[in-house]
Specification:
0% strand, 69% helix, 74 residues, flat, single chain, mainly alpha
Amino acid sequence: MRGEVRRIETEHRLARMRNHELAQLIGFAFHDPKKMPKFEDSTEDRKAISNEVANAKVRGFLIALSQKKTAGRG
């Protein structure tokens, strides 16, 4: 149940961010279209990584997560 609430809150926060960015772009387009920023694809900066590296990252994250949860029990 908490996961569903967290998901809805995250979706709402992302929608607010998109709406804010859209409002800024509309302001540029209406007042001074020449100064409107160019679209930048967010996937351009991402580098392709191998499955081995991706698996190591996930494994490290899960190990850190399990240590964090068990640290208070000891």
